[in-house]
Every structure is written in structure tokens, then in C-alpha cells.
Amino acid sequence: TGRYDVHATEQKWRAVWDELDPFRADDDSPREKRYALTMFPYPSGDLHMGHAEVTALHDVVARYWWQRGYEVLNPMGWDSFGLPAENAAIRNDAHPADYTYGNIATQLESFQRYGVAVDWSRRFNTSDPEYYRWTQWLFLQLHAKGLAYRKNSPVNWCPNDQTVLANEQVVDGACERCGAEVTKRELTQWYFRTTAYAQELLDSLDDLQPTWSDKVVNAQRNWIGRSEGAHVDFVVEGREEPLTVYTTRPDTLFGATFMVVAADAPLAAELVTEEQAGALEDYLVEVRKESEINRLSTDRPKTGVALGRTALNPLTGEQIPVYAADYVLADYGTGAIMAVPGQDQRDWDFAQAFDLPVVRTVQPPEGFDGEAFTGDGPAINSANDEIDLSGMGVAEAKSTAIAYLERQGLGRGTVNFRLRDWLLSRQRYWGAPIPIIHCPTDGEVPVPADQLPVELPELRGADLKPKGTSPLGAATDWVEVTCPTCGGPATRDTDTMDTFVDSSWYFLRYLSPHDDTQAFDPELARAWGPVDLYVGGDEHAVLHLLYSRFFTKALRDLGLLDWDEPFSAYLSQGKVINNGRKMSKSLGNGVSLGDQLSEFGVDAVRLTLVFASPPEDDIDWADVSPGGSLRFLQRVWRLSGDVTSAPGTSPADGDVALRRLTHRTLHDAATLVESHRFNVVVARTMELVNATRKTIDTGAGPADPAVREAVEAVAVLLSLVAPYTAEEMWERLGHQPSVARAGWPEVDEALLVEESVTAVVQVQGKVRARLEVAPDVSEADLEAAALADEAVQRALEGRTVRKVIVRAPKLVNIVAG
Ligand code: ANZ
């Protein structure tokens, strides 16, 4: 009867939901709390398929938690500082806020149309002064603890965006954002001391491993990059200070035939002799053009310059030459290495290029015809009068060498991390200003808390053009201030913060988004946090997750938070692709979310995204059928119109087979949602729909109370995935909205039990009967049933039962004599 008008249904329920606000999270609720979070969007245009996917998947869990009786916090806001808005402002002679807030309005409308289960009362934008006031405040807390500091060092520089980049933002030597090749520049910049937490950031990954994907955990592990090795001191001829190197292979010290210093480290300039100074200078010009990845690459010809000095290998007693080269990085380890060409391929290549000796200190296996041998094997050529490593494997030789070096005062065992401090200052406009005042007398002076936020000065259009220094510098009225300490003339810091700072704590702001007395309420953080499930993309596996983890630990140590980790579980969703390729403008294979929604409706698109694959996998839009999803939704909608029993009818006397399937489906769906197998939940719901249709058409009929029970279960199951259709069904079934808060139907355990199993009854070892019994039959009942069976009684005629062995529910063995 009637026709399912998808778009009219959407209109209708949006209005009802606006009124009911079913997903408003109540801080004072007595229910158990759950915090569900998706990575907040960046406002670049309208929503796309990626947003549709992540929110559809995430909604399954948030909505499920509501149905299970939790109080659920599922907030959303906008990560609204950043370069695209600034570039648009330059192009259009506008203000970045125009682009930003225009797109936010568009996206908000689209999210509401999409029916996400969000508490909209908590939304905020990171570019709102009410928000970045607290970003600045948190920066100052870290600054006070020595966790934010300034230093001068070579930094990654994007020549296109004209700003520095954190190491994490350089991908294969290119700017993560625009793809331009990244170069190095010497600059004074702000850093967060992430390295202070390197070990803890690594250790806590063990606890996260079960609820985070291996892929993400491993990416974080590699990024932190812990290695164990030693610092070894080499005496340099004509210099008082030793030249200290970091090595992970102190066992190979006998094979160190030369040394290499990073060409761009101050050390190189300091060590170089007058004769070689010019050569080093020329070489440096070349080096500055190279990206880090290129520099470390093994398959690149080795270049370098002799510094004109030698150092003493403490184990061989040989004087070995010292070079400067670009394959050693200035900011890793000590910026200098002992080169062991026999065991390290880059050193091997350098030795070949510069005609330097190779001494193997590990015996390669027989038949080895490679160059450097990096594997394990017995030590060779590794003995002098005081230490003999001969024959030891790498691990033993390492610890023996370290112990010796420590005894002799020549070195010490150390742990090293690849993780660098987080470079956070940017020379761009559209970010949170760094709340520091530079005073000629008092140095770095924090802006007093009661003067926060330091709001951005009004700049627009061409004012924002990248010029290598921050555009904020041009706002002289804004820059020139009086020092809060001495009252003398001073200047504001003109850099803004990396937008990753904004997103490192946003999950805390949702707890009390309108609080103008504090960044977040520690009580509420205790009540709601940490985030129970975080859903987002793999592209943030390193940057955002690591930075948020750092912030959480730092805030804990500041006494502001009592969690150790921000995200208890992390689900990384796959991408939506098309025809096997990432959607992109240049390939012309983009799929417009708006078009899909207009053609098939919200629910069909959501259902398609959830049903297509396990959430971690990519979805190829060419392989799925939103039309099929829509037809399915029409079928379930018709089911709800077919039910003729009254609401509240007891299902007790209903068709047992259908009842069993309903309860089994509800039971399994719960486990499936909890293990994030959302696509299977949909498949199981489809089975239930088919069985219900059959019961109506060719079985017990539409009046059977089991039919109502089944269709109501379908409505609740679909409320996780297709909220509009579920709501419409619920109304047609005679209920008040909202089905989203109807509650998960109670599962009757008795209906989960398999109907019966066959028990075999033996008398004197011979099978005499087979009984259909309940799977949970007691031993006593099974024995009684066996003894009462006619065939068994016949077999026992004239004998006495001596012993009955019962193995419920499968076997009864009767011994008689
Ligand atoms: C001698 C040696 C012999 C090394 C050998 C390796 C193999 P990870 O594991 O990444 O920490 N190294 C140290 N500082 C460096 C720098 N600033 N730039 C480039 N390379 C550097 O690697 C540590 C190893 O990388 C160190 O151990 C050092 O080379 C090199 F058979 O020392 B090794």
C-alpha cells in the first residue's frame, strides 16, 4: 500500500529530529557514558564521499550505544584553520574567514541532511577566537613547563607554500600539502618537546595494540624509531673535544675505516682545515638543495669532501680520515658517524667512491657475493691485546664492545629515537597566533592569560601572499606592543601555530565547548573520557594521532587530565574509490555525494557504504549498487505496512522459526557491531527481512505476532544504518518516534538454543534408540528419557540395569546384567 517517497521521508523526519534532539548528550545522565568520535572535517567545499563513509560507519556504533542504553557523546566541529582558506583568500581578494565559515555552513547543512547522530549543541570551529584562546593557553602551559621552546636549526621549507613544515609533513621529500620538493633553511622556530615522551609514546602502544590496527601501531612505532646502540668517542688530531658518534653497531668498531660528519652540521665547519674550507663551502651549496629522503637513499652516488683531519680508531689504533657528506644527517644521533663499509652499504658506496679501505668484521655466509654484509654472523678481524670479539654473534659482540668502551671511558651504551621535536611555528596567517611577546629586556614573555586570545589582525587578499616571513609581521599596529613585564616597547611573535596543534586537543573541548573559564572541564574529562572509539583515516596514522597522544600525556603531567591515552580504540576506515582508482579531478572519476543523495536518498547511500565491505577496506563505487540498496529499503518499508497485529501484541505464541531467527539476529548483531563487522550486520538483517516476507506470504501470515516482532527488530537494526527508513517503519508499526532511542530489544536466551540434538542410547554397546532432546537437557532427564524409551525397555527385558553412563546431550550407555 502506498509508495515509499524517500525525499519526503527525509524532510519529514529532519523536522521531527530537530524538535526531539535525540542525540543530545547529558552530562548528568545516570547512564554509563560512552564517547564516540570521528575525525572532524576540514571545511573545503561541501561534503564528499569520504565524509559520507566515515560518518556512516561511525554512526553505526554511536547509534548502537544509544540503543544499548548508554549516554553517548558524539560531537562534531570543524578543523577550520589552514592553508586552503588562506590560498582562496589570496586568489579572491577576500578574508580566509569568508571561505571557511561559508563552507562550514554548507557542510553543517549536509551533515544534518545526512542524519548523523551528532550532538550539534557542542559544535565549535578551531578558528573561533573562543576556541583558539584555549589553544594559546595550552601552548603557554607547555611553554611554562619547558615543553614549548624556540631554537635555531635547519628546518624543512616548502618553497611553494613559503612556510616551514614538520618532519611529519614531508612525504618522500615533498610537501605533504602541495607536493613541492622540500628544501632546508636555517631558522629560529618554535618546537614542542615531543622527544621528552618518546619512550612512553612507544611503550603505551603495547596497550593500544589490541584495539588499534596493527598498521597504525606499526607506523607509530617506526616513526618513533627507537634503536639501541652506543656513543663512541674518537680523539681527533689537533682538537681537544672528542668526536662522538652514534652507532647501533658498536660490535663493528674494528671495521671503522673512516668517519663522516653531516656536511651541514656546525661540526663540519668547525673541523674543516683551512685548505679544505673552500671545498666544503662549494659542497654545501649543492647539499642545501637536496631533500632528506634523497640524502638517505642508498641508491644514489655518494658525494662528500675530506675535512683534512684524521681521528683515532680506539680499537685498531689507526688514524682514519674524517669526511663531510650529505648522507649523514645533521639532526640525527650526533650528526657524525663511524663508517664501516664492510657492514653498511652506504659506507661501502662511499668507500668505493673515495677509494677507502674495507675491513669486514662479520663473516658473511659461504657463497655471499654481495657488498656490505648487514646480517648476523661470527665476528672476524675483531681482536687486539685487550678485547677479542672473534666468533661472537652480533648481539654478544655488541654488549661485549659496549662493556669494554664503558670500562675504558671511550663510550657508553645509549638509546636513540628517530622521533624529533615537533616544529610548530608557521609563517602563514590563518592559524592561532603564538601568544608570546619578544622584549629586548625580558626576552620571551608569555601573553598574560587574561589577555588571551591574541586575536588575528585584520588582513586580507594580497596581504596574505607568502613571502617567507609571516604575513602577521605586516600588521605593525598589531605587532608593536608594550612588554607585559617591563612596560617597554616590545613585539609580538608573528608566527602562527601548525593546525595540528588545534586538532591535538579538540576532543577535550567538546566536553565543555562553551566554557569561557577553562579549556576543558577536568571533571567531565574524567566522566566521559578517554574517547571509547575514534574513527578516521589512515592518512593520520602518524601525525595527528601521535600529536594528540603527546598532548594527552603532557596535559596529564600538567595535572589537567588523568588519562594516559586519548583514544582507547581506533578504527581506520578505508577509502571510497572509483573504477579501482582514488577519486580525483584529474582522472575525472569523482563521484558527487550530493548527486548520489539526490538520486538514491540518504539511507540508500549510507546502507551501500556500510554494506559494501568491512570498514577497513576500500569501497569501489563502481562495484556497489545504491539502486539495489534503495530497492531493499523499499521492501522493508512495505514489510512495516503489512503487519496487522497491534503494537504491544505479545509475540509468545508467534511462529517459532521466525522468532528464533529474530532473536538470533539481534544477538549476533550486537557482537558484530562490537567487533566492527558492520557489513555482516546488514547481511544478517537482509536474511531476517527475507524470512519475514516468506512468513507473511506463505507461512503464518501478517497477523502472526512473530511477524511484528521481526519487523520491529528490523527497524531497530536499520536504525543504525538507515535512520530515515527505520523511523518511518517505526511510525507505521504504531510507535512514537524516535526509533533511534527505542532501545535494543531484549533477546530471549531460550530462543537462541538450538531446537534439539540427537542423543544415542546404547544397551550393552548396541544402539537401541535415538532420542530428540534439548541441547541443554540435564543428565538426570536424559537418563530417565532413555530408560523410558520403548525400544530400550524391550532390550532390557529380563535384565537388571547395573550402570548408566550419561554424556548429555549426546549419549547414554546402559550396562545391564
Ligand atoms: C656504524 C655502523 C655499522 C652502523 C654498521 C650501521 C651499520 P638507526 O637504526 O636508524 O638509529 N647513523 C648514525 N647517525 C646518523 C646520521 N646522523 N645520519 C645518517 N646515519 C647515521 O641507525 C643508526 C645507524 O645509522 C648508526 O649505526 C650509524 O651507522 C648511522 F654495520 O654506525 B652505524
Automatic annotation (TrEMBL):
SUPFAM superfamilies: Anticodon-binding domain of a subclass of class I aminoacyl-tRNA synthetases (SSF47323), Nucleotidylyl transferase (SSF52374), ValRS/IleRS/LeuRS editing domain (SSF50677). GO terms for cellular component: cytosol. Its main location: cytoplasm. A motif ('KMSKS' region) lies at residues 582-586. GO terms for molecular function: aminoacyl-tRNA deacylase activity; ATP binding; leucine-tRNA ligase activity. Residues 658-777 form the Methionyl/Valyl/Leucyl/Isoleucyl-tRNA synthetase anticodon-binding domain. The gene is leuS. Belongs to the class-I aminoacyl-tRNA synthetase family. It is an enzyme of class 6 (ligase). A motif ('HIGH' region) lies at residues 41-51. This is Leucine--tRNA ligase. The keyword Ligase applies. It catalyses: tRNA(Leu) + L-leucine + ATP = L-leucyl-tRNA(Leu) + AMP + diphosphate. It is found in: Cytoplasm. Residues 13-215, 420-621 form the Aminoacyl-tRNA synthetase class Ia domain. InterPro entries: aa-tRNA-synth_I_CS (IPR001412), aa-tRNA-synth_Ia (IPR002300), Leu-tRNA-ligase (IPR002302), Leu_tRNA-synth_edit (IPR025709), M/V/L/I-tRNA-synth_anticd-bd (IPR013155), Rossmann-like_a/b/a_fold (IPR014729), tRNAsynth_Ia_anticodon-bd (IPR009080), Val/Leu/Ile-tRNA-synth_edit (IPR009008). One of its GO terms (biological process) is leucyl-tRNA aminoacylation. Residues 221-404 form the Leucyl-tRNA synthetase editing domain. Its EC number is 6.1.1.4. Keywords: Aminoacyl-tRNA synthetase, ATP-binding, Cytoplasm, Ligase, Nucleotide-binding, Protein biosynthesis. ATP binds at K585.
